[in-house]
Amino acid sequence: MSGTLRVLPLGGLGEIGKNMTVVEYDGRIVVVDVGLRFPTADMLGIDLVLPDFSYLRERVDDIEAIVVTHGHEDHLGALPWVLRELGADRIPVVHGGPLTLAMARSKLDEHRLRDVTLEDLDVGERVELGPFELELVHMTHSIPDSCAVALRTELGTVLLTGDYKFDQTPVDGQPADVARLAELGSEGVLLLCGDSTNADRAGFSPSESGVGPHLEEVFARCEGRIVVTSFASNIHRVQQVVDAADALGRKVALVGRSMRKNVNIGRSLGHIDVPQGMLVQPREIDDLPDDRLVIISTGSQGEPLSALRRMAHNDHPRVRLHDGDTVVFSATPVPGNERAVNETVDRLYHIGCDVITARDAPVHASGHGFVEELKLMLNLVRPRYVLPVHGDHKRIHLHSRLAEAVGIASKDIFRGENGLPLDIDGRGARFGDHERSGMIFVDGVDIGDPADVALRDRRMLSADGILIVVATVGEQDGRSVAEPELIFRGVPFLDGEEDLEGELRGAVVASLARCADDRIREVDLLQQELHDDLAAFVYDRLRRRPMVLPVVVEV
Ligand SMILES: [Zn+2]
Ligand SMILES: [Zn+2]
Predict the structure, then answer these.
(1) Do 506 and 480 contact (CB within 8 A), yes or no?
(2) CB within 5 A of ion ligand 1: which residues?
(3) Which residues are catalytic?
(4) pLDDT tens digits for 110-133?
(5) What pLDDT score does 445 carry?
């Protein structure tokens, strides 16, 4: 009688970032989250990484809605690309909380995507989406308006927790809706897809509201200017910095585009309250005495173009840091960003700043629940099946163990991966066949394939360098008439290869002679042939693939 429920994670499993899950019932689809990931160091020149959502390309007309749990980039960031690629007019509606959708709207404006239906939902409100009934449940996290998503079908309810912690004393006084979670649990939850981020941290996560007093303590010891860096979306953290600054009679300047943008959105929706006259413009920074100012800045992850990174390199148009300034990192590096953060910290010391990180003082609290909170979620919801999400393989594994520890049978716990659908019907739950999943790289605003030429070129250049060959050929017969010039840049393993240059010159001459015999005269074609011959030759000798750029000059 009832059909098959399919839950297909396209991102967020076996990795931190680009969360995206397809929930399918009766041929209809609700997509939960459309996140992106920031590139790792080996993805040179790549700006963003999106989940491969090819699966949805052939299924666009089956999509009932996209639902976004909260405004973080790893849940919302891919929305403009997903809408543009799938056709914004073919997605009936995007649902989420008011702040989440305000952030979505500002993103879509930047991408000039205006004809999109964004519909705020209040928590507890229920909407019909084809065979689904959707309800958002209020949760606490490091951004206001974070929700769990309940999708009810005739087969049962899927609960996707989104990112959450059980903060008993959140800054806005609105703890997670534990009562509703328990109700859903007693109505019966078929499948729980739970956040695994901190499945490796014992106990309960500290409350966000504990951070404020520590910030104030740190601030009280500072004599110079204070720069606090945090995620721009961590509105409650910004509020606590503002409060601590206020308590010590310091004014606040916001630096960095996303910081200014998010604080504006947060203020307009009433999530952040800045006393009258307290904000100063970045251009007024130098007018204030050092001990009267707190700067709140982007760049907590050492992002290359961020305000803090530019300050650290003495390259910020408004802020020139100096001896006596203190920089407070009110954030911890996301895995993969440690190096960039360390480098920024070191530059700051070099300038003469003091640096305080979460290791030195409790100036940060995670937005993701620790082990006891994950167990609490499992116990409140009492799901029939569990699919841990949002974590690398280690955390997925640890989360699965927690589920077993609270009494869920191991056969009902599914350790998934991206592209592996979990199919549930009246007979039970099992993994289906792999669907396409992976990464799409974004370079600037274009959308490309991993095989994208630019990326390949940059990778080659960075790893294996470049070889430029200038060959001079006679116009009459196309044979080499002068010693070919060779220019190597960044090609490894050239040491001890003194013979290589001579052999390469020989290879150039031989290649040109072969072309002459084959009556290949066109410069473009000659260059192509030279490229292929030389690339093969160099690979044979060095096991490296430098970019080979032949230049043929006719005389
Ligand atoms: Zn997340
Ligand atoms: Zn989040």
Answers:
(1) no
(2) 74, 163
(3) 195, 368
(4) 888 988 999 999 999 999 999 999
(5) 47
Please tell me the distance between residue 160's alpha carbon and the centre of ligand 2 in angstroms: 13
Q: For residue 163, report the distance from its CA to the centre of ligand 2, in Å.
A: 5
Closest ligand by atom to 391 CA: 1
In the reported structure, the alpha carbon of residue 161 is separated from the centroid of ligand 2 by a whole-number distance in angstroms of 11
Rounded to the nearest whole angstrom, what is the distance from the C-alpha of residue 381 to the centroid of ligand 2? 21
Q: Which two tokens stand for residue 451?
A: 């095989």
Ligand nearest to the CA of 70: 2
Mean pLDDT estimate for the chain: 91
**Contact yes or no for 278/251 (Cβ under 8 A):** yes
Do 431 and 414 touch, CB atoms closer than 8 A? Answer: yes
Of the listed ranges 7-21, 43-57, 144-158, 288-302, the one predicted with least confidence: 43-57
CA angle 275, 281, 287 (to 5 degrees): 105
Do 488 and 495 meet the contact criterion of CB atoms below 8 Å apart? no
Query: Is the pLDDT score of 322 beyond 70?
Result: yes
pLDDT score for 453? 55
Q: For residue 142, which ligand has an atom nearest its CA? A: 2
Strands (E), 232-367: 251-255, 279-280, 293-297, 326-329, 354-356
Global pTM value:
0.80
- pLDDT of 449: 47
CA distance 192 to 504: 62
